[in-house]
Amino acid sequence: MDDQTLTQQLEKTGNLLDLLNDDAWLEADDWDGPIEAGPMMQPYLDMLKAASPEALKRQRQYMRLFSILLPELKAWLQSWELGCSFEAVYTEAQLRIYKHLKQPTPEQTDWINALVAEDDQNLPMEERKLRAQVVAMLSNLFTDEDWQTLANIAAQKMAKGVLQIAQIKTTTPAAVQ
């Protein structure tokens, strides 16, 4: 990728990663083979080479969707003030969302397509009406079992953190004055 293209993209959207959504970038021929990050990438590359164009399009759509959903999920969970249990709850919540959206309902598919289309318009955040609905959609996506699992994980991690503090206290000698 040449410097001029990178500069133009940065001026256009302020985000170089938006280049990855451009079909021209995907079709660029300024490299002569796959780029990988070590031998562990080979099975992944083989899977990509074997995938149908429809499967690749669907995968790209999911990447776009989760690039919208995950930051919103993270901000929402941070507002819960989970402390040391945040990462575990965030990870589990991501897994639950992936599971629920693996086979979306027709209504969810319509909403997802509209959300991605809205994101393509590069509107200011305050004008993105569907993006403002993401937290409500995620909230409705979680089942009672999901909520209970997230609560249990938060409680367990918090208890573990408190018990670690207690362990430090009992093993640290008190200063004599």
Give your account of this protein's structure:
The chain is mostly helical and 177 residues long. It has a domain at 64-170. It has 8 helices and no strands. It has helices spanning 3-13, 23-27, 42-50, 53-78, 86-101, 106-120, 134-141, 144-171. Helix 4 (53-78) packs antiparallel against helix 5, helix 4 crosses helix 6 (106-120) and helix 5 (86-101) packs antiparallel against helix 8 (144-171). The radius of gyration is 22 Å and the shape is globular.
Please specify the SSE layout and strand pairing.
Elements: H1 3-13, H2 23-27, H3 42-50, H4 53-78, H5 86-101, H6 106-120, H7 134-141, H8 144-171
Helix pairs in contact: 4-5, 4-6, 5-8
Brief summary:
This protein has 177 residues and is mainly α. It has eight helices and no strands.
Low-confidence runs? none
Choose one word for the global shape: globular
As a whole number of angstroms, the C-alpha radius of gyration is 22 Å
Summarize the helix and strand pattern as letters.
HHHHHHHH
